[in-house]
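Escalation from tier 1.

The customer reports that the assembly of two entities below gives different structure tokens on two consecutive runs. Tier 1 could not reproduce it. I'm attaching the input and our single run for tier 2 to review.
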Amino acid sequence: MPAAQAQIIPGSAGAGGAALGNSLLAIEDHWATLGNQAQLANLEGFSAGIYGYRPYSIKQLNGGAIAAAYAIDDIGVIAASISHFGNGNNYGRQEYGLSYARKFGKARGGIKFGLVQTNLAEYGQKTKFLLRAGVAADLTHKITAGFHISNPTLTYNSKNTHERLPSTATLGLLYHYSNKVTTVAEVQQEIGKKLRLLGGLEYHPDERLTIRIGIASAPIGTTFGIGYKLRDINLNLGFALHSQLGLTPNLSLDYQTEEL
Amino acid sequence: MRFCKLFLPLLLLVTSAQAQQDRQEIIRQVLEVYLENAEEEFDYTEWQTELEYWLDHPMDLNRASAEDLLTLRFLDELEIQAILFHRKNFADFLSVFELQAVEGLELEKSRLLSNFVKVAGEYAVPQLHTRDFYRTGRHELFLRYRRILEKEKAYSPANRKYFGSPDYFYTRYNYRVGSRISYGFTAEKDPGESFFGSAQPYGFDYWSAHFYVQDVGPLKELAVGDYQLQFGQGLVLWSGLAFSKSASAINIARSGRDIHPYRSANENQFLRGAAATIAAGNYNFTVFASQKRMDGNVIGPDTAEDEATAVFSSLSYSGFHRTPNEMAHKDAISETLAGGRMAYNGSSFRGGITGMWSRFSVPFQPSRLYNKFGFSGDEYWNFAADFKYFFRNLYLFGEVAHGSQNATAGVAGVLASLHPRLDVSLLYRHYPKEYFSLYANPFKEGTSPANENGLYLGLSSNISRNWQLNAYIDQFSSPWLRYLVDAPSRGYEYLVDLKYASRKRFEMYWRYREQQKQRNAPEKTPVRPLENHTRRVFRYHIKVNASETIALKSRVELSQYEITDREPENGALLYQELRWHRKGSRFTFTGRYTIFDVDGYNSRIYVYENDVLYAFSIPFFQEEGVRWYVLGKYRLNRYAELWLRLAQTSLTNRQTIGNGDGLINAPHRTEVKAQVRLKF
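Tier 1 run:
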């Protein structure tokens, strides 16, 4: 979970995103609702999935999400997600999100409205409204560029403690070597933190199998994973190896209506 | 591809102009990829000898096996497979320039390779007739001398500490018939060692000799005297050169040479005795035995003869025997080693099992907590199984070893050619804290393959015709203590290398490397916390072929060493190099001027310098000052070549240079080196 610092709810855009160094732009299924929402725009039909992870293999830190997306002809794609992180009794954070994305020629844009709920055992509960938005464009048939912002309104979690929810901007490039190999590189800046570099490589040896590797800096981490598709069900496993805290396993199980 | 062949004459025309390069410059180009990342002086003699041999006797590209190509070492398994695939699918090569059409082999590598291969008609396997000895055999004799001109503390009359003079002598004689027969000897006297004096009546302090022959009767290989063994991924036996991480991010798989004659002057990395391989079809059977004496710190009984109660606490690898104390450690331990290997060599699958046993004359008794779980006693054995497998666009490799330490160590990896312009590599290793094999040298971060787990990811991509990207990241952990690390620890290292090469005129690269490891905090508390030590190095390097005769090289290197929450140490270094060689001229000149400003030892900067043939200089820089060197090579005639090198480091912020026994009471150190090679 190398991106823990950069996200309001730790975790990635599904196990696929976790295996790709936590990059946002490379995820183009319904988990793009947790990544760059613009990438939802290419979806067709209905898809949904469930995702879980265990940061540094520590049971008390479990997190997870569910997400679903539906494409409506001539209107765009709408997606809904619920993410959760933490131990219910002492500390927990939930986000309820609703996303919308659509195409504009070779470009696409997406936006997400979220409600972030923080529970602290002795301090009660707090709910905040949060905005995320992204754009992506195919520069050539091989190169896609994307930009994403999270919490541009600099929403406070608590004005008394001057604690803000993280605000992050991410600039990314996708490069398609071939229809079997895609690489991604992203630069991410969270206000008040070190600049991070994220990178990943996705390889499809055949139609069913996907192999992913990735890296992240600050903190340094290596990620890797595997995906297997059986008809309309897609199982993805992702692992992130933090340089000092160890291994975070990620798992997501997805359903996609079969293409017509 | 047939289309390509039609255009070959054109391709030939374009490239042949640059085909005639200086031989030693070609070898240097090969070595530099590895040397430029090296942070210790290693003996590259074996590799260089091999490259020189193939330059003189290029291998037939249409007959060369994967093993032949591997001896060059600068090609990785995927590239070799790409060449063999090309040959198999598009018929024999018409010219070495067709290498540029091999998919998956980058342009620069194909150019480099074209120097070591040829396209011949009929390939005649050399038979071992007496007349061949005279026809193709080659004698080679090296004489080398080196000395520091200023007086170091240990040589001053008041503090005389060493037996001998500050002169360094080296000589090597070798007779070779191709790669089929080799015999010769190497001898060396280090500075400070006695030469025909009381402490060393045999002249040189170090002697080595070898005899090696290939393909005699049922014997595929036979080595008597000093030899090296390289098996599998190096988990049990791998003496000699082995790379782990370099700017060549894909080249991480070991490809063993089995038995190899030993011609170097490194005083430890070899075996002494005999080794032989018998081939039967696709199977090879190897046996080996070795007995030699090693330097070590033996503690125990007062009389050296009574070994029964003696133990040794460390082995000494310096090879120096300059003082009574160093002489006392010399040859203090006798090591006996024996074993065997069975290997299967199929076309896509190769595998082997290796077994070895070793015994020391004196038991080893570790004295530190960090090697509490490591080897102790006087005897150990190991068994290992290794494999290599080509599967579609993947090259898989690995080795598992288990031994008397009751620990199982393993290393496995894959090289994948995902696209003609994109290769990736992945390697996982698990070396338990108990694992021990003295000659093991698998892919690793630490000094020995024990107490280490790690995951390595590498990537190499030809982004365009001119741009190449190499990158790797390696994460490692030690579940037990290490030297100066009193707790389990973790770390990482990554490198990004971006290279731009124009067709002929110039090439440049930008390289960034960062490494983080944990070390004890300096506080003397009962429980010492660990701190993160981060080392960062940035380099910009440019090489310009200014004219037919002049080549220029410039470099800027910046370093930083940071310990958690403390002010970092910084370093900077710049150099300019000029190399002059006119085609047909007997004279070659290289000179370099370096200026440096480095805060301290932690932020030191390593630089590879040109040296006389087969010698290597990778000095490191700290303090403030300048360094220059000039190197001249003169070819007297077809039998003799002469080298002369003069180098000086001057410090501007100190009155002395060096420390301990090497302290010089002046702010400069000057080294002179001379070498003669006779070939006949």
